[in-house]
């Protein structure tokens, strides 16, 4: 049945001029980093629900992440968050990760949970607090040296709730001061990925509110600083794929935090709410992947695809498997876009023809293709089922309740 479905799919795609071998090769090269915090307990300001079996420490978070990679072949690295993943010996955490077939990925500083940061961290009017915050950024650079991480992902909760509460321009200068100090401490192999978000926890102004501000800091800092697009961090209706195309063209797109949002920064499973947006993001990326400018091609090659979700009521490991499979599905669909066809329609000024050439790829069922590559890679064709049928979900129950939470 699978063979017949794939044969039909192959025939269909061939007729459209799609090179399926190339598509398969690209699909096999897709890497998605999962976040350590997605395996722990999380919640809202109303409640953090405690699930039985969540990891009790960073080492167990890597063990759970290894399950996701073992079954999907997509997730060889895990982002860490400091101090949530603080350990005495990062070398030991690195060896543990490697023993599980994983790498430690991006290091995420945490500048939002200490009492002193109520009025800001690196943008606090108090120089002592700014120093403490900047020292934490420097600590994260040191940790990245030990873990062998390339990327430092920065998200700041800094902002104000009321007009007049803070001096916006002074805070802008303090932000640059802290980022500059951190930038100088990085090794030449490292990258600073600057994330933005327009509100929450601050409700009047956020110091790094949008991609333009992140881009401006990255530009001032230098080539090792780039922008990180978290798909949940935009106002309703924002054209995220436009931002993606623009940043790639400026060679400043460093990576993504994938998740879904319906109302705010909901951190739901990526692809659960608006899979077409995810597909259109990949359309822009793939459009740039063949650019004649090698620097643009290089920017595309270096994009870090990361998940940033909190699984408040879902089972953590299945939620992560669902997430990465959703990304893989939309990437597979985007790989079916016939770019020459889109371009020809654009040249003719054929609005509907161009839209149709893009959308048609989205409408294909890529299940036979995904099954085929999983078989070729020696992976279960249905990773979710394989996980649920394994003993792992039962084994981890022995950990009990009250594991790691943010
Ligand atoms: C808070 O909005 C947030 O979701 C940001 O997206 C960060 O990347 C993440 O938390 C981890 O600090
Ligand atoms: Mn994020
Ligand atoms: Mn967020």
UniProtKB/TrEMBL annotation:
Transmembrane intervals: none
One GO MF term: L-rhamnose isomerase activity
Coiled-coil blocks: none
This enzyme's EC code(s): 5.3.1.14
Keywords on record: Isomerase, Manganese, Metal-binding
InterPro entries referenced in this protein's UniProt entry, alphabetically: L-rhamnose_isomerase, Rhamnose_iso-rel, Xyl_isomerase-like_sf, Xyl_isomerase-like_TIM-brl
UniProt domain Xylose isomerase-like TIM barrel: residue ranges: 90-266
Highest taxon in the source lineage: Bacteria
NCBIfam families registered for this protein in UniProt: RhaI_grampos
PANTHER family assigned: L-RHAMNOSE ISOMERASE
Protein name in the entry: L-rhamnose isomerase
Species this protein is from: Marinicrinis lubricantis
